[in-house]
Amino acid sequence: MSIEIGDSGGRLAPRRRTRAPWLRRILGLLGLLVLLRTSPAAAESPPAFLLKWGSLGSGNGQFREPVGIAVDAAGNVLVADLNNDRIQKFSSTGVYITEWGSLGTGPGQFDGPTGIAFDAAGDIYVTDQRNSRVEKFTSDGAFLMQWGAPPGQRERTAQSVWWDRGRRGGQRVRG
């Protein structure tokens, strides 16, 4: 005989271990089945597929490596399209609204946009990976400002950005 710790009405208590290992296995499986059937997580169904949009290409609603995605307060979906060097904006049902950006190093241009985030005012932050900078836009895509390495300087590459809504607030960039 050996001692095993088991659940006894909400508290741990020693119990005798049976000599028949096959009986232990069966009782263990039955207990697991009862636990799974009564568990709230088991009662929930898996997430349901809702919607998809886009195809390969460079036209409206098409992508060449979409790598960043964010949803604004109105439910619009913004996608950072890495190899088309642009941001595309869609309604919550996938209807194309607008886009901005092109290949380049100037304000509002990208060379590999990867991350996208919003602040509390609705302004948009985009990490421009190969230009090693972060660009800030209005909710309509108008360029506001940028910061990071000057064009041609690629010391550190900005890959993602998110808005920290904690006590201190502010944007964070991961390189």
Describe this structure in words.
With 175 residues, the protein is mainly β. It folds into 2 domains: 3-43, no CATH class; 55-174, TolB, C-terminal domain (Neuraminidase, 6 Propeller). The protein is 13% helix and 38% strand. The protein contains 2 helices and 14 strands; from the N terminus they run ββααββββββββββββ. It has helices at 21-38, 40-43, and strands spanning 3-8, 11-16, 55-56, 62-63, 66-71, 77-81, 86-90, 96-100, 113-118, 124-128, 133-137, 143-148, 160-163, 171-174. The strands form 5 sheets. Strands 5-6-7-8 form a 4-stranded antiparallel sheet, with no helix packed on it. The chain has a 4-stranded antiparallel sheet with strand order 9-10-11-12, with no helix packed on it. A hairpin with a 4-residue loop joins β6 (77-81) and β7. The longest helix has 18 residues, at 21-38. The termini are far apart.
Write the layout of secondary structure elements.
Layout: E1 3-8, E2 11-16, H1 21-38, H2 40-43, E3 55-56, E4 62-63, E5 66-71, E6 77-81, E7 86-90, E8 96-100, E9 113-118, E10 124-128, E11 133-137, E12 143-148, E13 160-163, E14 171-174
